[in-house]
Amino acid sequence: MCTTEVGTPVWRDALLRITRADETGFPAFYRVIWNAHITEFSDLTAAQRSYCTEAITVVEQALREHVAPTKINLASLGNMVPHMHWHVIARFKEDTHFPASVWAAPVRPRNPAREAALLALLPALEDQIKARMQALASLASAAAAS
Length: 146
Prior knowledge:
The protein is α+β, with helices and mostly antiparallel strands. The chain has one domain (8-145): 2-Layer Sandwich (HIT family, subunit A). It has 2 helices and 5 strands. The protein has helices at residues 46-67, 112-145; strands spanning 8-12, 16-20, 29-34, 71-75, 85-91. The chain has a 5-stranded antiparallel beta sheet with strand order 1-2-3-5-4, covered by helices on one side. Helix 1 runs antiparallel to helix 2. The longest helix has 34 residues, at 112-145. The radius of gyration is 15 Å and the shape is globular. 28% of the residues are buried.
């Protein structure tokens, strides 16, 4: 994840990037990925942790406002990819795996119409992420300069 882009890029600055994961069956699945190679959240400075947490919050809020999920799942596993990143996943009671993890076995078939409807909402959601991250990055830069 240090050098390879995974998923569809949504936002990037010097510290982190946000991508849509493009996971089959889960159109509203995003990742917040720290650009520099670190493996653990505690490797970040306090200011970096705050910025990362705010970025995760931006994605979560955009998902809640635009797609009204049943639940948001947040995960930072790193077992398979030891690079600090967070999964921010909108979950719906009718998705293939709910209420289990997206990595569990499916419990119902996919609903292509529902997935297409969610995909149609993502451009506006991603525009909101970009705008909020631009504002957040400006505040972070101003704070770092003072």
